[in-house]
């Protein structure tokens, strides 16, 4: 899949969305319509940026952007007060942006540059 079908972007009550292992080159601004989204996985795509509108996903708890060509995180992410885990393994992001230094992380992921991301997610979902 090279783009997200617009029908998905209209699912306002959607809480979990995995778009891993596709050929997405961009995330549309309409992703911000998914206001109930708690878990968003975008790993193993062709993304080079995230839209500023991602900061409108205020219910988001987990964001996986592993193995993309992303080199920075938009400042709007600081609006995501519920964000517990952000996976950046395999991206060009080398350290946590200054505006995320005080972000709330759960006991599994203490920093944004998480080599342990994959194991943390596995542990998190085994508890549910």
UniProtKB/TrEMBL annotation:
InterPro entries: Leu-rich_rpt, Leu-rich_rpt_typical-subtyp, LRR_dom_sf, LRR_domain-containing, LRR_R13L4/SHOC2-like
The Disease resistance R13L4/SHOC-2-like LRR domain, residue ranges: 2-64
Gene Ontology CC entries for this record: cytoplasm
A family per Pfam: LRR_14
SUPFAM superfamilies listed in its UniProt record: L domain-like (SSF52058)
UniProt entry keywords in alphabetical sequence: Leucine-rich repeat, Repeat
PANTHER family, sorted: PTHR48051, RAS SUPPRESSOR PROTEIN 1
Record-given protein name: Disease resistance R13L4/SHOC-2-like LRR domain-containing protein
Naturally occurring in which organism (per UniProt): marine sediment metagenome
Phylogenetic classification of the source organism: unclassified sequences, metagenomes, ecological metagenomes
